[in-house]
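[09:14] KT: can someone run the structure on this one? pasting the chain below
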Amino acid sequence: MATLGYNPRSGKTGIGVPEILQAIVHRIPAPQATPMRHCKLYIFDSVFNPFRGIIAYYKIVNGTIPQGRFCKIRFYRQRIPCRRK
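[09:31] RB: done, structure tokens below
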């Protein structure tokens, strides 16, 4: 089929998937974080743990959070320590 200009691709069987992923990695640039801006993140879920309190799960969109840094949540106007699991 490649002689006709058709390269088979299948997400179900995995045929051609590595080539597609390599093309995405090479063609789409990585996001660039600007160090002078504040860290931006999305909180997408939270759970309550009776021993640790509220645990928020988030995705960092721009910037970094160093270990031991405090985060400020605007809605609550409180500073909370940022920790990793």
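[09:33] KT: thanks! The helical segments are 17-27.
[09:34] RB: yep, looked fine to me
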